[in-house]
Amino acid sequence: MKQCIRVISMICFFAAGVIMMLVIVGYVRIPDEMTISEYDEMNVGKTYVCQALVNYSPDDVSPVETEYSTSVKLFNVFPIKSAKVKVSRRKYVVPGGDAFGIRLYTKGVMIIRIDAVTTAAGNVSPGKAAGLKEGDMIISVDGVEVYRNRELSAMFASSGGKKLKLRIERDSKSREIEFTPVLCSEDATYKGGLWIRDSTAGIGTITWHDRTNGIFAGLGHAVCDADTGEIMPLSGGDAVEAKIKGCYKGTSGSAGELCGVFSSGTIGSLYINGETGVYGIMDSFDENDKVVPVALRQEVKTGAAQIICTIDDTGSAYYDIEIEKIFDGKDNQRNLVLRVTDPKLLEKTGGIVQGMSGSPIIQNGMLVGAVTHVFVDDPTEGYGIFAQNMTETAEGVEDYLKAS
Mean pLDDT for the chain? Predict the structure, then answer.
C-alpha cells in the first residue's frame, strides 16, 4: 500500500512539474500582443487555448482594425496570461525586387564632426564651447531655418562674431543653445568649425507597393549617417531609377556590394525615413499588377522561401533561401535569420550584398518580410524584417495622403 502511494505521489509530482514547465514555456513563448486577419481563428498551438474575454465577431471588423482581449490557458484549464489580439483586414501588395536610387535631404543639417578653428589666439572650438555633439541636427539659426551646408556657412560668416541662437534636435528633443563663430586667421572669415551633412544618396531594393494608392516601401531599415550612425531626419527625397551593372562579391569578413548608377528619371517621392525603411509615393503604377497577401508575424515559418532581387542588368529574379530563425522580440528590423541557398545567387554575389536591403521575402505565396542586413563573417546569412512591420509604418504615408 505504501509503495502504491509512493508511486502515485511520484506520478503526481512529475505531472505537476510538467504542467509547471508548460505554463512557464507558454508564458514566455506566447506574446502579450498578437495580430490576426479577419475570419482567421486565434491559434497558439494544440496545448494552449485562447478564450475571448469579450464577445467578438469577424463581421464587426472595422475598415482598419479592432482589438479584443483573450485569456490563454494550458489544456483550457490552467490560466497562463491575458493577451491583446488585434484583428485587421488582410493587406495585399505588389512585391518589388527592383533596385532603386535613394536621394535624401535632411530636416536641418547634421553635425558629423566638430573641429577647432585657427585664430590669432590659437585653436578654438566654438562647437565644443557651445556643448554641441556629433549627430546633433541644427534646425535654425536666429529663427531662420537651415537646410544646406552653404546656408549655415554664410550665416556664420556674416555673424561678425556675435552670439547666434541655434535650435538643435538631439535624441528627438529640441533645445536652444548659444553659439559664437570665431574669426579664422587663415582667411579672415568667421567660422564655426563644424563638419555638416545635408543630404545622402545610395542604392536599395523596393520591397512592395500598393496598387490602389501608389504607396511603396523599400530597404527595410533606416538610411543612417555614415559617420555618426544616426537616422537622417527627412525633409524630402526622391526615389530614382537605378541600373545595376554588376556587383562586388561578398566574402567572409568583407561585405559585397551592388554596382549601379542613377538614371535621370524619378519614380517617386520619399516621405518617411524610419527604423523599418523608406516610404513614399510612386509617380505612376499599374493598377493591374499582381498582388500577394502580406503575412502576419505569426504566419512566418522557418523553412524554404524565396527572395526577389536585382543583381545585374537582366532585371529582378527569384532566388531560393532558407528562413532559419524567427524572433518574437520587439526589434523592428531583425525579426528573422535567413540563409541563401540558391547556387546561382551564391555564385554571382556570394550571398547577401549591400544594395539588396529591401529584397522581398516570399513564402507560401505570401510576402513575409524583406532582407535588411548581411552577416559580415558569413555573407550567405543575414537578417530580415517582418513585412507586417513595414505595412504598419506605411500607414504614416496614408495619413499624409488623407491630409493633403
Answer: 84
Grid cell for residue 326: 524567427
Predicted pLDDT at 45: 56
Radius of gyration of the chain (CA): 27
Q: Which three cell numbers stand for residue 203?
A: 542604392
* Closest C-alpha among 256, 111, 270, 260 to residue 192: 111
Pairing of strands 336-340, 292-293: unpaired
User: What cell was used for 396?
Assistant: 504614416
Q: CATH 2.40.10.120: which residues of the chain?
A: 93-102+199-403
The beta-carbon contacts of 256-261 under 8 Å, at least 24 apart in sequence, are: 256/349, 256/350, 256/351, 256/352, 256/353, 256/354, 256/374, 256/379, 257/353, 257/354, 257/355, 258/99, 258/203, 258/310, 258/311, 258/353, 258/354, 258/355, 258/356, 260/99, 260/101, 260/203, 260/355
Q: Is 370 left (phi over 0), alpha (psi -120 to 50) or beta?
A: beta
Residue 399 is predicted with a pLDDT of 75
**What's the pTM value of the predicted model, to 2 decimals?**
0.74
Give me 129's grid cell: 564651447
Cβ(199)–Cβ(107) below 8 Å: no
Q: Which amino acid is at 54?
A: V
Cell of 371: 532582407
Which among 85, 68, 83, 70 has a CA at the least distance from the CA of 296? 85
**Which ranges in the chain are annotated with CATH 2.30.42.10?**
116-192
The answer as to CATH 2.40.10.120 being correct for domain 93-102+199-403 is: yes
3-state secondary structure of 192: coil
End-to-end CA distance of the chain: 82
pLDDT digits (tens, 9 = 90+) for 339-372: 999 999 999 999 999 999 999 999 999 999 999 9
Q: Is the dihedral angle over the CA atoms 352, 273, 391, 283 positive or is it negative? A: negative
3-state helix, strand, coil in the chain (%, to 5): 20, 50, 35
Residue with cell 517582418: 386
CATH number assigned to the domain covering 116-192: 2.30.42.10
Condensed to tens digits (0 to 9), the pLDDT of residues 45-56 reads 556 555 554 444
Q: Can you spell out the DSSP letters for 133-186?
A: -TT-EEEEETTEE--SHHHHHHHHHTSTT--EEEEEEETTEEEEEEE--EEETT
Amino acid found at 260: G
Q: Rounded to an integer, what distance in angstroms lies between the CA atom of residue 132 and that of residue 172? A: 15
